[in-house]
Specification:
This protein is mainly α. Helices cover 63% and strands 6% of the residues. The relative contact order is 0.08.
Length: 544
């Protein structure tokens, strides 16, 4: 493998609906497990509109591509010189090659390039099975394994992340399994394979190796193998073959590796599925807790920055928002009044006034509630952020979902405790977080909640459930952080961080837009009032 030359490739496109056009192509030559030489990146100007949903992902618009892109035929000629006949690997090979590039090359009359490679996603799914990060989305694995952050959802950024994944995560596992040549790695990625955790049906999330002990699961796999659906039958037969390969001496190790299992982490932070002792499982739980604490602290800090900025914007725009929303209600209810007047007469139309007043009162209450909530939002200082990270390292020790599922009173107390933690986190209430982190039992006692034991048990099955829950929570926080970073508010907060004066310009533009809408609403409200006056013979405003 050390001397193998190959290419990692990725593309960004106009979307998933044919015809699909590439807007960016990125590639990296590899020698063995490491990047070799400079990367390749080109934007393509194909004179195509970019759907908004695609542009939101990769950030490219038609205007950007017309300014910075190059003709597709020229880009692919340069890609051919860069890649030659080397085998091509992509994180979703079927999409990048079969759905995007090959149809595009055919459309342009270009001879396909690159040798036969394999799908890096499929290789990762098999090597990491059962996937500790919860799924094999590229950005999820990047964050889970703490790989460097490149340009997410750009072709070159994703290529660089795949290269990091190969070098730092997949390599040690592959070498441990004797996959030390290009041919063996390619074959391993392409072999028939299915996840060890069942993904559907009554046994969803169970390890197939539980069938060595569970007769009902074994019968279900045999039923699956005899399914009339060819793919289901193939899967069932493959699972049964794997069970047949397991020797009695391996049963405990496989049970641990894929179900209620113990795992360990090697020096590079890669999870290897072996059969360590109970203490090693505790060590992995401790590492997962530390990881979750870091992620939670980072997410809370980033979210706090966004909320603090939104509070500043709201306070400066509230007067304008309120006037706009008041006029929206006036227009809406004057139209209702007019429609009811024509259809049902004056008495029924008069009831619209009460509906309007109630709606207006609710709107005022919503603004007051928002103002109160926004008033508590402030950006944390450096010292507060440092303390927040320390508190989360303490608070994450209290993470015990489903621990008290069989005791409703204790489950309610645990739910109350986690609810208090989340409420304090969302409001930036560091004092409450300090109280809980320093003395959770005392805090619960002061609230009148049932006493619960928050220490870990010595039961292997319970510890494994805790580890699985921690991994799921890590994934949840990673996804929440990704969603936050993809929001317009986060993007604005990053821009304002670099240039605070931009905020005044943004607010000015918003005021200008609101004022334009207000002018239109006033004109429409006046038009409706004139029509109502003509019908009723009364010039007094009926609403507003």
């Amino acid at each position: 493998m050390q001397q193998a030359d190959w290419i990692i490739l990725d593309s960004e496109t106009t979307g998933f609906v044919a015809p699909i056009y590439a807007v960016e192509v990125g590639a990296q030559q590899m020698r063995g497990w490491e990047a070799s030489g400079p990367p390749f990146r080109k934007l393509l100007n194909q004179n195509q509109d970019i759907p908004p949903e695609a542009s939101r992902v990769h950030g490219y618009t038609r205007e950007i591509l017309e300014r910075d892109g190059e003709p597709a035929s020229q880009v692919y000629a340069e890609l051919r010189r860069y890649a030659g006949s080397l085998p091509i690997v992509a994180y979703n090979l079927d999409y990048d090659m079969e759905k995007v590039l090959k149809p595009e090359w055919q459309r342009l009359g270009i001879t396909p390039m690159g040798g036969g490679g394999f799908c890096a996603l499929r290789l990762a799914q098999r090597l990491l099975d059962p996937v500790p990060a919860g799924n094999c989305k590229l950005q999820t694995l990047r964050q889970y394994y703490r790989l460097p952050e490149h340009g997410a959802h750009t072709a070159l950024g994703d290529v660089e992340t795949v290269a990091d994944l190969f070098a730092k995560v997949l390599r040690p596992i592959a070498e441990q399994r004797g996959l030390d040549t290009w041919a063996s790695l390619k074959s391993y990625a392409e072999d028939e394979w299915y996840p060890s955790r069942i993904a559907f049906g009554k046994f969803k999330d169970r390890s197939i190796y539980d069938a060595r002990r569970n007769t009902e699961l074994r019968q279900w796999l045999e039923w699956l193998a005899n399914s009339s659906n060819a793919r289901s039958a193939s899967m069932g037969r493959w699972y049964l073959r794997q069970l047949a390969l397991v020797k009695p001496s391996q049963e405990a190790e496989l049970f641990v590796a894929t179900g209620g299992s113990e795992t360990q982490t090697n020096a590079t932070g890669i999870i290897l599925y072996v059969h360590p002792g109970l203490q090693r499982l505790r060590d992995l739980i401790a590492a997962s807790r530390a990881r979750l604490a870091d992620l939670e602290a980072t997410y809370t800090s980033e979210r706090n920055h966004v909320l603090a900025l939104e509070a500043r914007i709201f306070q400066r725009l509230r007067m304008h928002f309120e006037e706009r929303d008041r006029l929206r209600l006036v227009v809406r209810y004057r139209q209702v009044f007019l429609d009811t007047l024509l259809a049902e007469g004056e008495e029924e139309a008069a009831k619209t006034r009460d509906d309007y007043e109630q709606a207006e009162a609710r709107t005022r209450e919503e603004y007051e509630a928002t103002e109160a909530a926004m008033g508590s939002k402030h950006r944390l200082s450096a010292d507060e952020e440092s303390e927040l990270k320390r508190l989360w390292r303490e608070l994450v020790k209290l993470f015990h979902p489903d621990r008290f599922a069989d005791d409703p009173e204790k489950q309610a107390a645990y739910t109350n405790l986690t609810g208090a933690i989340n409420a304090a986190k969302d409001s930036g209430d560091l004092e409450t977080l300090r109280q809980i982190a320093n003395d959770p039992a005392g805090y619960m006692l002061r609230q009148g909640w049932a006493a619960i034991d928050l220490n870990d048990t010595d039961e292997l099955e319970q510890l494994q459930k805790l580890l699985n829950s921690l991994e799921a929570e890590i994934l949840s926080v990673i996804e929440a952080t990704d969603a936050l970073k993809e929001s317009d508010s986060y993007e604005l907060s990053q821009v304002v961080e670099k240039d605070p004066e931009i905020l005044d310009r943004v607010i000015g533009q918003q005021i200008e837009g609101i004022n334009e809408e207000v002018a239109k609403l006033k004109a429409e409200a006046a038009r409706l009032q004139r029509e109502i006056a003509e019908l009723s013979g009364d010039d007094a405003p009926v609403i507003g």
